[in-house]
Amino acid sequence: MYSISLNDGESESLEDRGMLKIQVFPVGAENADLRVTVAGEGILCMNPNPSLAVVTSVPTAATITVTHGSGGVFPIEQSVRVSVTRGAEATVEFPIVRVGGVSEKLLGRISHEGDRYVFTAFGSSDSEELPGSVMAVSSALRAHLTEVPTISRIHLTADTGATFGSTVPDEDLAAAVTVVRGVSGTLGADTVDLTTGGGRRGEVPCSSLEGALRSASEADSTRVGAEVLPRPADLPPDELSIHLTATPVSGMFSSTAPSLVIALGTGAPAEQELYAMSPDRTPRTGFIAITGQLSSAINGGDGSAFTAGAAVVAGVLSTAREEYR
Q: Which of 67, 110, 117, 302 keeps 20 to 30 A from 243, CA to CA?
């Protein structure tokens, strides 16, 4: 028997004869409750046990997904690896994928092309250096996206100033940064174009974002008002605007480019309700309130707590895809 190892995004093919044994293994927590699911139109598959699937036919295509066996959320440091064995002849080893903070994750795809099965690996490009909380947000978002749109630039505007500094707890700011990093990572962006109440800061690495925002908040703690903030309505449709604010205004909304408003502080839930009833509400602007228990859950790496927020972000990003159809 010979073995083939895949990296993220890589593919390998085997002849389409013989049955396939698809097994998921825990990495980092030996007692993990894992269930592997192979799904596709017309496939013939049985599960002798939760972590093993035996497939005898894939007419067109199938996906390989791991889920938490009892429906819960994987521990934050949990990772998994999948192997596919054809008969006693060949094994395809998929890369290690982090699943911490989510309840399910897509690991790969099988395509039937001619007389061969083509195996493609997903998911391991999520950097092992990323905090688990950021990974959890990214995983929650990916679960709501049918495809990832091409976004050429992400503009982050933090409405720092006296109100922001006095009403936004550190925990809320940390959670908001986690969401921004999760969204950026999903879109393949390592930097954001940052503007604060004191003016444009330029491109800032996502890994340095929280420190940059805390510094700006301290510097602007006595500032009333702000420099002219960028308007998402002025952006092209392939650029994403994100506003962090304690006091949302209609200038942060857009009907032409994808836009996300993240409201922070104790008044965030009320601001979210007002936006839902606002005549300025548009399909291209999503609104998320991050405060209290949600902040704690996001900072703790609970990806399931961001399910509703992920749906909002995915809805906004879907408008970016539609622009080019």
A: 302
Report H helices in the chain. Answer: 132-142, 162-167, 170-186, 209-219, 268-277, 292-299, 307-322
Residue 138 to residues 61, 147, 165, 226: CA-CA distances in angstroms? 25, 14, 27, 31
End-to-end Cα separation, the chain, in angstroms: 46
Q: Which domains are seen in the chain, by residue range?
A: 2-121 (2.60.40), 132-322 (no CATH)
The amino acid at 219: A
152-201 pLDDT, tens digit each: 889 999 988 788 878 889 999 999 999 999 999 888 787 899 998 888 88
Give the global pTM. 0.64
Cα 65–69–70 angle (5° rounding)? 140
Enumerate residues 6+ apart whose C-beta is below 8 A from 31: none
Q: Determine the residue type at 22.
A: I
Cα–Cα distance for residue pair 259/71, rounded to 1 Å: 33
Would you call 122 exposed, middle or buried from its count of C-beta atoms within 10 A (0-12, 13-18, 19+)?
buried
Q: How far is residue 291's CA from residue 268's CA, in Å, rounded to a whole number? A: 7
